[in-house]
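Pilot study result, target chain (87 residues):
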Amino acid sequence: MTSIEERVSIASKQFLTFSDTCRLLSVAYRTLKPDWDEFLALLKSQGKRIPKYGVKASLVLDYFDIDYDQLMREYNFDKIKKDITRA
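Predicted structure:
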């Protein structure tokens, strides 16, 4: 399971690779591969270029229905919880 800190860090990148997306969604390579291929095919059909360094993060977040604001809320809640535990 990927930590919330790592997930927020990944989601904050400008471009995401397949590996980044696997870690962000906390899924195995084989589980995500068919959906990723479908996503890339959709982008190509829309005439979008796919750079070798990754796909624009906003497109990945939208397609895989990842709520960045929810990630940030979870991150802040986790951070507060850790601060209270340390006190």
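One observation from the pilot: The CA atoms of residues 16 and 54 lie 5 Å apart. A full batch analysis is planned for the follow-on phase.
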